[in-house]
TrEMBL record:
Protein's organism: Nakamurella sp. A5-74
Gene3D superfamilies: 1.10.10.160, 3.90.320.10, P-loop containing nucleotide triphosphate hydrolases (3.40.50.300)
Protein name: DNA 3'-5' helicase
Keywords for the protein's UniProt record, in alphabetical order: ATP-binding, DNA damage, DNA repair, DNA-binding, Exonuclease, Helicase, Hydrolase, Isomerase, Nuclease, Nucleotide-binding
UniProt catalytic activity: ATP + H2O = ADP + phosphate + H(+); Couples ATP hydrolysis with the unwinding of duplex DNA by translocating in the 3'-5' direction
Enzyme Commission identifier(s): 5.6.2.4
A single GO molecular function term of this UniProt record: DNA binding
Length: 1126
């Protein structure tokens, strides 16, 4: 065999598929470094072949380069990756360069994978060491080799989540010690996640620049910045903890990505190591050079200083990682012998290039690499008879309209233009702010989406609740009222999930039953009782649990389950099984095993997969939950590899501390047949046929706000670099934002849509005008139609049915619509056949709604609502109210609070009950809870002041929340009862009895309307007839105070009053006592209302409340409800 210098060789290997020891968690894992390889040498063909690749003249200059150092300026789509691949192939196959002496560096794992795959397909080549590496992977390989030479364990990568957790722990420790080293203005922030993240950023960015803690402290003292001195101390402590971990775990040094480069430079600082590396690496190719930071540039320069060839490729206009320390000027400053400019775009056509060039022209730097020409101008896209513009720029009046238009545009591109879902993308500057309306619009339009790299696993509620459950095993104190209430309403219970009303009902029953089993007294706070119930059933006892024997607690808990409906009991039992599993695996040393046991117990996999298969919004949520759970398992496996034996507690802490997605989560997700939704940074290096750049708003893009934070890291770095921090950076920030917008727009191959909201509070970005150039920016939906009919079978059927049923339709048009409906009906499309049209179907039944002879109970409020509109009153009685909203939550709490005040309960106790009630409202965010609390307390105080005023005037409380039951006439054998609950019954100094009804809504009646108020009159009727049967109070958690043994004594009626509390001051409207005629009239109206509840036919009445009616879709008088009878 001749020398490699004389004859080129191809090295092939049959290798094991397992990962080499020590490579777990390493960025750009060394795919070729595997054990057990059997090598053979073969002679390749002697001539370089381009295959299907046809290089341009500029690309051929790079491929056949003969000078030592070359800079390649390559704009978007100019084929820089293909050029790099072909250059490496040419060196091996034509010049006979040893493949092991070639090093190809790139910025991201995704790019490294693509380069490796292309080289493998061109060379059929497998090496003992990978030819292509990320910059971090190459730095790691140097450290790993150095550790092996020294007989030390290989270093390991420190994940972002683990590093964040370490910083937070260190800050917590300093807080416990008093945190005297931190200035008083910053001390209150030390415990926050945001400040921990800021400290972590300081450690990372100073590490990138080899800025030691001593140097940071010196700058802090010189500039009188004690927070920098304190941060330097924490950075030193952080490194000490890493060193201690290495010594106690037997693992290698833990390094984050910033420290990798610094440590690698230190290794190469030894002459023998540098000489060996320069002897091994003879040719260096660097992709995306514009994204390197100063440390990485120094590393490349040190290795390439003795190399035969250095080729750096990049585009200064795509330098978008300055926040990570990269320098846009790096590509300009590198020393080269020659510069080659790639000018032919193989991605975009002329129209797209002209538009994006207008953005690039506004960027600093020479323009020679921006004069791109299209290799082949693609033919215009034509769909449904209309030609699509390559570039469309449009503003919409609201965020919802914008989202709906984007969804419609994507659906039409898929159905009419034949573009695959996976060939479309939506790019956002701020996914967290822009995603909610897009998610809703895409679900409504039937557009599948996958959000890439926009979050962490615990952003998904199901994944978060799994981690919460897992954490209950090692830490039983977490099984408290808040956690149990949340888990009972969580998707982790699958189909057994409870709503807020069911949880409230469980609380009430549990408190009553468990109190009875104790003999007397409370079973704990209003929320704690269900936590006690679950702990007892699970056999898990907290350290502070009371002294009740375990058997008694279990017996009481079982009695609760026997007293609640089966669905509630099933949910509790399922939660108990999960908590028992978490308790059983609490001591498991492998968190992945523990998580698997919990996941298996949950039985959710089958349910979620079935939901995904059904499609729709629920499918998208289920798919996202499955992705999050898979990510949890990956994190658990990674933790086990990094810290063997770390166990469940460490995993739970890591999962909760993780705030940013690691790179593999952001870019390594499995491909979906769906539209990609991602950030502009995440889109770098990718391309799609249709790209929508959405929400390009002034203030958001460009985002020129400074992110100085409490530590002002940028100012520290400027001072360390000798730059005056007083110099404005506005121009730099604007250039960064413009480069990011340029990257987003240049991802498109065929079509580009850019949208913004132009409304009262939103202004489009200046970038829209730059992109549009002399052309005006379109506003609204095309043709002024807003919106167009969506391309759905459901919408098509609806439109055809409207045409057929509209009396004003031309006969020929109606006939054609009927023919199309017949075709759809024959194909089985739901809703197309007239048999499925509600208005043409006969009544389901004509029997009365109430069984024969059954009593009918009607409340005073129902008497009033049925008088206004029978249809609404009956449907609401049958459950058409929907879930409890804020108004209902507020009303329940205020009425319970006022009842307590009327019975003499102290205000502080009442407010404590309000807080307990609101703590159980898991469906509401914290800000809404705070707003509700302010409103409830304000109205409670208003009622308290009013009660004190009437009490001082000689009024006495007879009772609050008094039940009334007044028998009325019978209808066809149905006894009619007027039943309800009087908010407050009082006796005046004159001895008369007054009914009070408290109102918490904002709508008020007039004095004249109050005088005739039917609900108030019905209460008067019942009280005057002596129909008060009991006095009891319903507390906020649903617990019923025992009824009084005696009926309250009622004297002569003194009338009634409405008391409005909404404004924070009691406003009173009165009603005179009923005379006999008025009393008979009210009783008759109650009977008429009861007849409507019985009958199978009810009357719909148009009235001023129709606009707010919750049953409009079932009302034939309303446009949206005409399908009931037409």
């Amino acid at each position: 065999m001749t020398s490699p210098a004389d004859t080129p060789v191809r090295i092939a290997a049959e290798q094991r598929a397992s990962r080499a020891p020590g490579t777990a968690g390493v960025p750009g894992a060394d795919a070729g470094a595997r054990a057990g390889a059997d090598y053979r040498l073969t002679a390749p063909s002697a001539r370089y072949r381009t295959g299907k690749f046809s290089p341009s003249s500029e690309q051929r200059q790079v491929i056949e380069n003969q000078v030592r150092r070359v800079r390649v300026l390559a704009g978007p789509g100019t084929g820089k990756t293909a050029t790099l691949v072909e250059a490496a192939v040419e060196r091996i196959t034509v010049r006979g360069v040893d493949p092991a002496s070639i090093l190809v560096l790139t910025f991201s794992r995704r790019a490294a994978k693509e380069l490796s795959e292309r080289l493998s397909s061109r060379l059929d080549l497998t090496l003992g060491e990978p030819m292509v590496r990320t910059l971090h992977s190459y730095a790691y390989s140097l450290l790993k080799a150095d550790a092996a030479r020294s007989g030390l364990p290989a270093p390991r990568m420190l994940g972002a989540a683990e590093a964040d957790r370490m910083v937070a722990d260190l800050l917590d420790g300093q807080l416990l010690d008093g945190a005297a080293q931190w200035p008083g203005s910053i001390r209150p922030a030390l415990g926050s996640a945001a400040f921990a993240s800021e400290v972590r950023d300081l450690v990372l960015r100073t590490g990138e620049r080899a800025l030691s803690p001593a140097r940071i402290a010196a700058i802090g003292r010189a500039r009188r910045r004690p927070e920098w001195v304190a941060a330097a101390g924490l950075a030193r402590e952080y490194q000490q903890v890493l060193d201690l971990r290495m010594g106690t775990t037997g693992l290698g040094t833990a390094l984050d990505q910033a420290e990798l480069t610094v440590a690698a430079l230190e290794v190469l600082g030894r002459d023998d190591v540098l000489a060996a590396e320069q002897t091994r690496v003879r040719r260096v190719f660097v992709d995306e050079y514009q994204d390197v930071d100063p440390g990485q540039a120094a590393l490349i320069e040190r290795v390439a200083a003795g190399a035969d060839e250095l080729v750096v490729v990049g585009d200064p206009d795509q330098a978008i990682y300055s926040f990570r320390g990269s320098e846009p000027a790096a590509l300009r400053d590198v020393e080269v012998d020659r510069t080659v400019v790639l000018k032919t775009s193989h991605r975009s056509g002329a129209a797209l290039l002209a538009a994006t060039r207008r953005i690039a022209t506004a960027l600093p730097g020479p323009p020679r690499h921006r004069q791109l020409t299209a290799a082949v101008d693609p033919p215009p896209t034509v769909g449904a008879g209309e030609e699509r513009a390559a570039v469309e720029i449009r503003t919409l009046p609201t965020a919802a309209r914008q989202a709906a238009y984007v969804a419609d545009r994507l659906r039409r591109a898929h159905l009419q233009d034949g573009i695959a879902w996976a060939s479309m993308a939506v790019i956002l500057r701020s996914p967290a702010a822009s995603m909610p309306p897009l998610t809703r619009a895409f679900a409504a339009a039937g557009v599948p989406l996958v959000a890439r790299g926009t979050g962490v696993p615990l952003d998904d509620p199901l994944a978060a609740d799994l981690v919460t459950l897992l954490g209950t095993g090692p830490d039983r104190t977490t099984i408290d009222a808040e956690v149990v209430a949340r888990l009972l309403g969580s998707a982790v219970l699958g189909p057994d999930t409870l709503d807020a009303l069911a949880v409230r009902r469980l609380r009430g029953v549990a408190r009553r039953v468990m109190s009875e089993h104790r003999g007397a007294g409370s079973a704990g706070g209003t929320g704690a009782v269900i936590a006690e119930l679950v702990r007892a059933l699970a056999g898990v006892v907290r350290d502070q649990e009371d002294s009740d024997p375990a058997a008694d607690r279990v017996a009481a808990a079982r009695a609760v389950l026997a007293a609640v409906p089966d669905p509630i009991a099933a949910a509790v039992r399922r939660l108990v099984r999960l908590i028992r599993t978490a308790d059983a695996v609490a001591d498991e040393r492998d968190a992945e095993v523990a998580l698997w046991q919990l996941w298996t117990t949950s039985g959710l996999e089958k349910d979620l997969l079935a939901t995904v298969g059904r499609g729709g919004r629920a499918a998208a949520r289920a798919d996202a939950s499955l992705d999050a759970v898979v990510s949890l398992f990956e994190d658990a496996a990674d933790l086990a590899a990094r810290l063997p034996g770390a166990g469940v507690t460490a995993f739970v802490e890591q999962a909760r501390a993780r705030r940013v997605p690691d790179e593999q989560t952001a870019s390594g997700a499995a491909a979906h047949e769906a539209v990609s939704v991602l950030s502009a940074h995440g889109a770098k290096g990718l391309e799609w046929d249709l790209v929508c750049v959405v929400d390009v708003q002034d203030g958001r893009w460009p985002d020129l706000r400074t992110s100085a934070g409490l530590l002002r890291v940028d100012e520290l770095l400027d001072l360390a670099a000798g730059v005056d921090p007083a110099v404005s950076r506005s121009a730099e920030r604007l250039a960064d934002e413009r480069r990011l917008f340029y990257v987003a727009c240049t991802r498109a191959r065929r079509q580009l849509l850019v949208t913004a909201v132009d409304g009262d509070d939103s202004v489009p970005s200046r970038f829209l005008g730059e992109l549009a150039g002399p052309e005006p920016v379109a506003a609204g939906w095309p043709g002024g139609v807003s919106p167009r009919r969506a391309l759905h079978l459901v919408d098509l059927v609806g439109e055809l049915r409207r045409v057929v049923c509209d009396e004003g339709t031309e006969p020929e048009t109606a006939l054609e619509a009927a023919r199309q409906l017949a075709r759809l009906a024959a194909a089985g499309v739901p809703g197309a056949h007239p048999d499925q049209w509600w208005g043409l179907a006969g009544p389901t039944t004509e029997e009365d709604a109430v069984p024969p002879g059954a009593p009918v109970r009607i409340s005073p409020s129902a008497v009033e609502s049925l008088q206004t509109c029978e249809l609404r009153g009956v449907l609401e009685r049958r459950g058409a109210r929907g879930p409890m909203g804020d108004a209902q939550t507020l009303g329940v709490a205020v009425h319970a609070a006022v009842s307590g005040l009327a019975r003499g309960v102290p205000r502080d106790v009442v407010v404590a009950e309000i807080d307990a009630h609101l703590a159980g409202q898991e469906r509401l965010p914290d800000w809404q809870i705070r707003r509700l609390r302010r409103a409830i307390v304000s109205m409670t105080d208003a009622a308290d002041r009013w009660l004190q005023v009437i009490g001082a005037g000689g009024w006495a409380t007879i009772g609050s929340e008094l039940a009334v039951d007044l028998p009325l006439a019978s209808i066809d054998g149905h006894p009619i009862h007027l039943t309800g609950r009087v908010d407050l019954l009082s006796q005046t100094p004159e001895g008369t009895t007054v009914v009070t009804d408290f109102k918490t809504g904002s709508a008020k009646v007039t004095r004249a309307q109050a005088a005739e108020h039917l609900q108030l009159a019905a209460y008067q009727l019942a009280v005057a007839a002596g129909a008060v049967v009991s006095g009891r109070t319903v507390l906020p958690d649903g617990v019923v105070e025992p009824a009084s043994a005696e009926r309250p004594r009622v004297t002569v009626s003194g009338g009634a009053q409405l008391v409005y509390l909404r404004t924070g001051e009691a406003k009173v409207l009165t009603q005179e006592a009923l005379d006999d005629d008025r009393a008979r009239d009210v009783a008759e109206q109650a009977v008429v209302g009861a007849a409507a509840l019985i009958s199978s036919a009810v009357r719909a009445s148009e009235n001023p409340a129709c606009e707010r009616c919750p049953v409009r879709t079932c009302c034939p008088l309303q446009t949206e409800g005409r399908q009931v009878t037409r």
